[in-house]
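Hi, here's the filled form for the chain we discussed.

Project: internal
Contact: R.S.
Residues: 72
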Amino acid sequence: MNQNITQSTQVGDLVDIRTVTVDKSLPKEERIADFVRQIKNPYRFRCGDFVVNASFARNGATLEDCLRGILR
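And the returned structure, exactly as it came back:
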């Protein structure tokens, strides 16, 4: 079954990305895993009063590539 995870989370349940902290002393893979664990849904989260819905082009960068760029 193909679930659209960008719409599966209620706005009140979204994590505010400003509360997410990542230990930069961890290896990259562990930083990524920790970020995803905290944010719960990396495709749909809050930043203050704003809801962020992330999407990617079919031939564009993957979510993993984007997270690596953020967590360097």
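Let me know if anything looks off before we file it.
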